[in-house]
Amino acid sequence: MDAVVLNRNLMRVTDNLVFDLNSRECFGSVGVVDAGSRDEEVSRYTVVRANSPEVKAFGLRINRGYNLAINWWLKQSTNSQYLLLLPNDTEINCLDLESLWDSLPERINVAAIVPLSLTDPYNAILPSQGVGIGWNFNEGPIVLSREFIEFMVSCGCEVFDSKNFRSYLSFVEIALRAYANDYAVMATRHISFIENESHLENHYDLIATEESSKNAELLIAEGRAWLGRKYGIIDGMTFENLVRLSFEDFLFSNPQVKHLKIR
Amino acid sequence: MRNSDYTKSLFKELRDRRGTLLGVGPMSLRIVEETIKLANETKKPIALIPSRRQVECSGFGGGYANNWSTESFSKFVREADRGGYILLSRDHSGPWQFRTKNKQGSSLTYKEAMEEAKASLRVDIESDFDLIHLDPSQGLEFQRSEQDVINDILDLNEFCCGLKGGREVIYELGADEQSMIPDLPSIAEEKLSLILERLKGMNLPSPMFYVLQTGTKVKELRNIGSFATRIPVRDMLPAAFQIPEILKICQSYGVYLKEHNADYLPEDSLSWHKRLGIPAANVAPEFAVAETRAIIDLAKQGKQDWFLELFYGLVLKEGKWQKWMMPNSKATDEEKILIAGHYHYSNPEISEAIDKLSVELKVQSIQFDTEIRRSVRKSILRFLKQFGYYD
Question: Domains of chain B, with CATH numbers?
Answer without folding.
Answer: 4-286+380-386 (3.20.20.70), 287-376 (no CATH)
